[in-house]
Amino acid sequence: MSAGAIVPEGPRPRHFGWARLGIYAFLIVAALFFLFPLYVMVLTSLEPMAEIRMGGLLAWPSDPTVEPWIKAWTSACTGLRCEGLRVGFWNSVIITIPSAVLAILLGMINGYALSFWRVPWANWMFAILMFGTFIPYQVLFYPLVRIASTLGLFGNLGGIVFVQVVFALPVMTLLFRNYYASLPEELFKAARVDGAGFWRTWFSIMLPLSGPMLVVACILKVTNTWNDYILGLIFAGRDNLPMTVQLNNMVNSTLGEREYNMEMAATLLTALVPLVIYFVSGRWFVRGIAAGAVKG
Amino acid sequence: MAGFRWKTGTVAAAIALLPTACVVLFLFVGGTGWAALVSLTSSKMLANWNFVGFQQYATLFSNPRWLTSLANMVIFGLTYIGSTLVVGFLLAIFLDQRVKGESVFRTIFLYSYATSFIVVGLVWRWIFNPGMGIQDVVRDLGFASFTFDWIVNQRMAIFTIVIAAIWHGAGLVMVIALAGIRGVDAEIWKALKVDGVPAWRAYLHVILPTVRGSILTAAVLMMIGVVRLYDLVVAMTNGGPGSATEVPAKFIVDNLFERQNIGLATAASTSLLVMLLAVIVPWLLLGNARRRSRA
Amino acid sequence: MRHCRRGGAGRTQTRVEEKDMKAHWKLHAAAAVLMAAAVSPSIAQEKQAEVIHFLTSASESAAIGEFAKAFEERGGKWLDSAVAGGPAAKSTAINRIVGGTPPAAAMFNLGPEFVELAEGGLLRNLNDIAEANDWRGKLPEALAAAAQLDGAFYVVPTALNGQNFVWYNKKVLADAGIAEPADWQGLIGALDKLKAAGKIPLAMAGQKSWEAQLFWAVLLGDGGKDVYLQVMSDHKQDAVKSADFRRALETFVKLAGYTDAGSPGRNWNDTANLVITGQAGFMQMGTWARGEFNKAGQKPDIDYGCIILGLEKGGYQLQGGVFLYPKLSDPAAADAQKLLIETMSDPAVQAKFASHNGSVPFWKGADRSGLDACVAKSAEWVATPGVAVASQGVLLSPTLNGALNDLISDLWNAPGSSLDTFVENFAAALASAQ
Fold first, then answer.
1. Among A3, B290, C301, C311, which is most buried by a count of CB atoms within 10 Å?
2. What is the pTM of this model?
């Protein structure tokens, strides 16, 4: 990567003209739309159940309380245990990190191999991979259960990571294949002329360029794995159940009472980790960060 | 993309692709094959091997709920993909204007993707409910004849799901678009500036074509989401009112688990796959032919 | 008083009171040590049993806690695998059984769900325990029949719910000058008065299973027990085309006119809330609705009433939860499983279970004191021969039940549609299920 990303030059817009106003207006209106459900959720999570029963979706709580939040985290019932969400937090973490790393790595290598190298059966494999992902994955549960238990990967951490990676392969491969295909070929040719092989070319040229798409892939994969519950339920085994299983147990009781305020708090708590990642990923969206590398 | 014939590298590439190839072979090909086989049997809760030919398919296509599901998938797919592409790219373009607080805006637009549908679907259901949601709020403000009861209306209910889906997915499309736009060569920007091209024209005629790859990626991701649409429907309307918002994935999962009819469920998923193949393969071949004729 | 549970690494403990817990625990530990020293090494390992179930709300958790407590008092170790949502829990159990790591027990619903597993030889035959504890003698007829396949017991019924109750807000009815209706035609009259008074006459949870539930309640209470059983058990085509069926059908369709605009898709809890807060008069829901009324602090017969319409003509529709026990290959695990089965089928333990989630204690000779008005009524009806009738969940296969749900829901949501077409499709669905 060259020293310092290149940003477009030219005079900074000095005056706050109509164009700028229009841009901000659009963004703010859009932000209101996106924030609306969050507003409802936060409000509901701070109201006692008696107030929720009275109705009033947007009314400011007259008797706000953080008890639902504490309850969601520490003492909500999720079956026999009544210990809230925190039980599964670390499980979610140790499932998400290896799954994300492995899936993204494999996706990158696949995308790279598919974009620049002529392996005879590769395109067929990619086509089948893409079609395979259109099937609702619940249909593949039974074959997958058999495969996983044959490999000794059923009901343990290895099992859930394996399954997460397998189901993420199509999308990860797609992301990186399209991305690498859009990169200029001169780079690649230059590396080959220099005598670099498959791995060297990837490591020294393609990997550094993958920045922006890496962030997108990260956002996608971490969110999907973090929020997944059915795969964790079936393949992770009792000791590794992710936090979403507790969330689901709190929310989906068929014949039991519903405590909406606690459910809202629980959902917001679960969404915190991906949110932090989104916020932190900012520095990767600087304009021209990939383009800069081309020059160097 | 011209082809290289350097053997060693190709072998390394083949080896690198091997794990995925195994997965494809055993799970996707094997699993889909298994499902197709089961669809030819009379399996209920567990797979049995009592073959009954295409009976499940006959039952399937005379089932009005399945036909409604297919129609809904098409309606939902077209409106959702179209709208989200537009919204997502607009957001990305506007965010690209070096606005203050870009990180805050980006997180706001993206956080919807982080929340799980289990509860968010319920919130949207409340928002759309005529008795307690938007209709109720606006009426309380004084507009007594304001009506917004799409979610209880058989014809319009599917569009409430579209709205919730746009809310959920636009952020991701925005991020993909932003990554693409920000990856555009700085030289191009300079050239546009030098030539004095106005911003909107720059985006429409130069930048967007350059990020066609991003558009394609986003579109495919959304198509996958459309075919696999399940959690949102269950959380918002559970297929209702009646069967107005039934979708294929829900039909399949319901028959797989709750109704203990895996013969019908696998028939549904296999026929869904065949229909997709029938639509996508000709389009791909057409694309290939055009590319070859151009080269 | 809610029971709270705190768990250490993997171990689940029940505690009743802060002080007792420590003494309790120490007693357990001492007993365990003594027992371990006294018995041979192979049984010294605690009897572990994993249980998959879908009881996850606060009161349900307290209920399952009674089983866990009793099991641990008898020397077992309860490994809890709760999964909210019946279909999710059941499919988890099935996947585990099929994948080779079956749980010791799994919760299903009363009805034919277990049959395929039993026929496939995947379930433990419970006849030895059944004989020893005289289940045939102590269980009500309908339940005993539903728990057996070819004369052998495969499931233990644990919870019994009445499905066709109608709940109403006493104050709303009193203000409108309405007396408690005795049958479905009487209900229609009451609904008219409520509509005039400006209240929501019938609060409806507009989801498929509840719409179907209402249909079956009307068929039973307005059409009569005969036509109901002919349709449900015998799948008789002419029962569907009979005048009784038609009359019940027309009553059902008429009810659709008394619901409010917000009913499609609404959860049953929110629907109960409308009755609780006095915005609506009536609601048709099963006995589990009691939980919401209780949570809101309302008392039966004072704030709300619970009745069955057309009880003499029809009956009390029962449905329930059961536990089934997969075959385990490891003899030690099978031993633990036996202890679990005996614990869970003990009427005393079951009574404690039922006391938390408002289900009806059904073992003959069970203690009925201390039940609130609605549950006591239910218990009496269950015990009276000829009154209890099995519900659609018990009598129909899940596939047929689902197909009929689709038909009924479509009719409910498009009230102008042809009743003749409905009857035809209904009969066809029954026929093809043979």
1. C311
2. 0.86
